[in-house]
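Box 3.1 A note on notation
Throughout this textbook, protein chains are presented in two layers. The first layer is the amino acid sequence; the second is a token string describing backbone geometry. Keep the layers aligned when reading.
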Amino acid sequence: MNPEITVVRPGALTTVQDAGRPGHAHLGVPRSGALDAPALRLANRLLGNAPDAAALETTMTGCALRPGRAVTVVVGGAPCPVTVDGRPAAWGTPVHVPAGAVLDAGTVTAGLRSYVAVAGGVAVAPVLGSRSTDLLSGLGPEPLRAGDVLPLGDPTGRTALPGAAPWPAPPAELVLPLRPGPRADWFTAAALRTLFSATYRVSPHSNRVGLRTEGAPLERARPGELPSEGMVLGSVQVPPDGRPVVFLNDHPTTGGYPVIGVVTEPGLASAAQAPAGTPVRFTPW
């Protein structure tokens, strides 16, 4: 019988995430998956898991879990205090959690999203090839609630040596490389200059669907709206208020607001760790 882990405290928002379900946009299904994909892969590597094994993505306030059997866990991504039955434990490296003990990943001290990975991975039933929670379409397991019981996979027993994990620091300023287009011609030359010179800030209304910004509005060169067209991860859509929105993993697969540019995928991992108020700059790529 595979081990299970019980959610004691779900935190503000904790979801199951893996590498996502790419390849289904033609069905209207977003990619989903961990917003900070490098953090998920590193946590899994430290545990000897497959790189795309499912883990828990927490938001701001972490979560607390009680395993039915002894397990090995890594808490990574955004730094936070970690305890086992109230006693301090290591962040960013494998930790042994005895059966019945409570692992608590606390409120982040920087960044936004922590990842709680367990040896063997979280083994909820996959949907369209992924165990990820998709907040837009509702696919995958619901966000965690207290009392939820999650099955775990079989651990390999090959955890990495502690102390060598290159965890990046969350960004003090979010710099997003952006390739202009496909609808940059819907904006004035002044708007394009503003986009690459102004400093925006992350809006508190951001979520897994998109990183919303606050700052100088971008002026349109033409009125009206586009017919809905396909959207890709990293699209920077400009709604009527003129403030750019960067589409993240749970983004809609179509949209009618013009896309002024697309952020390169490697640049999006830092967006996952940018809380409200973080300065944002777009740079041409």
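The chain has three helices and 20 strands. Helices lie at 37-47, 189-197, 268-271.
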